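Check the record.
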Amino acid sequence: MMTEPQTEHFDIIVVGAGLGGIYALHSFSQQGYKVIGVEQANQLGGVWNLNRYPGSRVDIEPVIYSYYFSDELYRDWRWRDRYPTQPEILNYLNHVADMLDVRRLIRFNAGVIGANWRPEVERYDLNTADGRKLSCRFLVMATGNLT
């Protein structure tokens, strides 16, 4: 007989590990919240991980894709192209995740397959594609506008 997985409890669950998800995980963990990120893909990067078609790049300068909350992080990265390619943006996001040590907070291959708000306890219950059961007080959707 198979036992049902135990529910893991968090203050905050962040759905998505792209630009917004990476920052949210860092910010909430720095504030002392028990936080976890769930990502349906096998690595971070959001749209810049998923869209790998030939010639993929942005049509704006990389200031839009840069984080400015950390002088060290800002100084430590130099963009090679005026209009960065998909691989360069993905490399930047991986660099940021490693510098901020947020990768350890992300569950990959764990897309949300169900989420329910339970008003009687003021918590969300989530089920993920990898079979986990999660619970949180705050559910942050960082799924992006390009996904």
